[in-house]
Automatic annotation (TrEMBL):
It comes from Rhizobium freirei PRF 81. Residues 48-67 bind DNA. Gene3D superfamilies: Tetracycline Repressor, domain 2 (1.10.357.10). This is Transcriptional regulator, TetR family. Keywords: DNA-binding, Transcription, Transcription regulation. The lineage of its organism: Bacteria, Pseudomonadati, Pseudomonadota, Alphaproteobacteria, Hyphomicrobiales.
Length: 218
């Protein structure tokens, strides 16, 4: 026979402070995701507090509270772009032996090509770099460039470019070429007569890019 006054187990809820912290983190992430999505789809023209709040499904006052307004939100997106490089361009060799600086740059070129093709927001930012001159674009561009430079420094170790080669200038040209063909393909599925419609076309482009890298770095 059960004892009448036996203790009844009641599920414990998370402490109020813990729930608030968790809810704030979720809201901050929702705001950041909405801001990135809005930038990717519509650009800066319609980028505002009200539009971001609608996309995040929250009160616009929370954007001011958590990010201090649009400038703070852009700073957070810039920081997130640094994470973009870490997520999309991992610190590993992909099974490739990095014996020379040329190996390093071939690996980075292929990773950057694939990452840029897969990310509409990053493509937008690259397009803005050559079409707009604003503080917002500059912040986002610098965040990506800094993250890429950091990847090279972490991965290259004792690897150095061939003597007499201005590696920063050459690498800038390589990145510019990658950015141009990716943007061109998004508009017309081709670049300077090179078809970029399917995986076979992109394999051809990747092979050509590797040859350019090897032509400079060996």
């Amino acid at each position: 026979m059960a004892v009448a006054n036996a203790a009844v187990k009641i599920p414990l809820e998370a402490p109020v402070v813990e729930r608030r912290v968790r809810n704030r983190a979720a809201t901050e992430q929702a705001i950041l995701d909405a801001a990135k999505r809005l930038l990717a789809e519509e650009g800066f023209q319609n980028f505002g507090i009200n539009a971001v709040a609608r996309g995040a499904g929250c009160d616009k006052q929370l954007i001011y509270r958590y990010y201090g307004g649009l400038n703070g939100l852009l700073e957070a997106i810039g920081t997130d772009l640094g994470s973009w490089v870490a997520d999309r361009i991992p610190d590993d060799t992909g099974g490739m032996f990095l014996l020379t600086y040329g190996d390093l740059m071939e690996r980075l070129s292929m990773l950057f090509l694939d990452a840029l093709r897969a990310d509409p927001l990053m493509r937008r930012i690259v397009a803005w770099e050559v079409s707009e001159s604003s503080e917002q674009v500059r912040r986002l561009s610098e965040a990506r460039s800094k993250a890429l430079a950091g990847w090279i420094e972490r991965m290259r170790g004792s690897l150095v470019p061939p003597k007499g080669v201005d590696a920063p200038a050459v690498n800038a040209m390589i990145f510019a070429a990658i950015q141009h063909i990716v943007l061109a393909s998004a508009v017309s599925d081709q670049c300077a007569g090179l078809a970029l419609k399917n995986s076979k076309d992109w394999e051809k482009a990747a092979t050509a890019l590797k040859r350019i890298v090897r032509g400079v770095y060996g």
